[in-house]
Design a protein that fits this description.
By secondary structure, this protein is of the alpha+beta class. The protein is about 35% helix and about 25% strand.
């Protein structure tokens, strides 16, 4: 589960992670009032920031500086309702429905810092770079030597030497070892407290406040483990449904794992690994998957029916490929669910079904004698080939 920057910063402050202050605004009037409060407190500059669940907002025109209340209101009017297109939103972009109006900072230098769960090493992995505000993936590809990476034990947590290594890598020297160590410690505590799976601060900035310089989280991107959200009712309240595809929200009601994609072939599969393999083989035969959809091991008739409905809500879908391995759920039961669902929703696009597993012969026979326009396949390759041809009208 993702949350907005302003929500993450509030959680940061509760954990003791230094960050900026500000107010969320859903309208130009609210943005004007928020800016006025910040200027009244002595700020010479405020930052108007679009709030969407994606990075790259600055390059897309979603982060602007304002030096007056009127300028802040003007910028708010320009950004609210705008569709920002970033590498993380995809070509369709994401509409801006809220803003974060925060105090400006005197930035000396910007860095990148993140912590995420590394399932391979069963530890927390830290990534850092002395160049903040950049595309970390691009930087890692073009200049891997500029990325510092190390692991922190889930049991013992970060140590002082981690902070020292981080401070020196960022070019801050001994003067900021304690601060770097504190940042790592607080982020570590944040992970444990919230069941987070990723925390990204881009940029982490060295800012001037009078005669002193300190580290400040100027941005905050947080992702929580969906499996742990039930333990945190307050975190669940932070979920913004407008940032998620409506079909994904509908799928969650029926415990379906669904992710919308840009293709024209709907895929319905049981098991994440099989789903990935199905999408790969569809692409191999020249098709493009319209979704990732894992109905799980207990693919009931209701789940199949609702899965069909969700897939067909996408107008780009021209054919559907059902690829089910009947292990826990027998193939004849799955076939019954597919037939029932097809009749109920009056399926209007070509359907190709590949079944394998317990009672597979009976399941295939039920599909073939159903009187419905259902194409069956024995292998994944045959199914992918048939559904691509059907999608093209062949």
């Amino acid at each position: 589960m993702k949350i907005h920057e302003h929500q993450a910063k509030e959680l940061f402050r509760e954990t003791g992670i230094p960050t900026t202050i500000g107010k969320v605004a859903f309208s130009v009037d609210e943005a004007r009032k928020a800016a006025q409060e910040l200027f009244d407190k002595g700020n010479s500059v405020v930052v108007v920031k679009a709030q969407i669940h994606a990075g790259g907002r600055g390059k897309a025109g979603g982060v602007k500086l304002a030096r007056s209340v009127d300028e802040a209101a003007k910028l708010a009017g320009e950004i609210l309702g705008k569709v920002l297109v970033t590498p993380q939103t995809g070509p369709q972009g994401q509409e801006v429905r809220r803003l974060w109006i925060e105090s400006g900072s005197k930035i000396e230098k910007e860095f990148y810092l993140s912590m995420l769960v590394d399932r391979k090493t069963q530890a927390l992995s830290v990534l850092a770079a002395a160049e903040g505000g950049m595309d970390i993936e691009e930087l890692a590809h073009s200049h891997p030597e500029k990325i510092l990476s190390f692991s922190i034990s889930l049991v013992s947590g970060p140590k002082t030497f981690h902070g020292r290594n981080l401070s020196h890598f960022l070019g801050l020297g001994e003067a900021h070892v304690a601060e770097c160590a504190l940042f790592l410690q607080k982020i570590y505590e944040f992970f444990w407290k919230t069941d987070a799976s990723m925390v990204e601060i881009n940029p982490l900035a060295l800012v001037s406040e009078g005669a002193t310089k300190k580290l400040l989280a100027l941005d905050a991107k947080v992702t929580f483990d969906d499996n742990g959200v039930f333990r945190h009712p307050k975190l669940k309240e932070l979920f913004d449904p407008t940032e998620v595809d409506a079909k994904e929200l509908e799928a969650a009601k029926y415990d379906l794992n669904f992710i919308a994609l840009d293709g024209s072939i709907g895929c319905m599969v049981n098991g994440a690994g099989l789903a990935m393999a199905t999408m790969d083989i569809v692409k191999t035969y020249g098709g493009e998957p319209a979704n990732f959809l894992d109905v799980g091991g207990g693919a009931t008739a209701e789940k199949v029916r609702e899965a069909f409905k969700i897939i067909l809500k996408d107008p780009k879908v021209k054919a559907i490929f059902v690829n089910i391995f009947g292990g826990i759920m027998k193939c004849d039961v799955i076939a019954e669910g597919i037939i029932s669902a097809s009749k109920e929703i009056q399926l209007h696009v070509p359907l190709v079904v590949r079944l394998e597993g317990t009672n597979v012969d009976l399941g295939r026979k039920m599909l073939e004698t159903s009187g419905l326009k259902i194409h069956t396949a024995v292998t994944m390759a045959e199914g992918a080939e048939k559904v691509v041809k059907a999608m093209k009208g062949n």
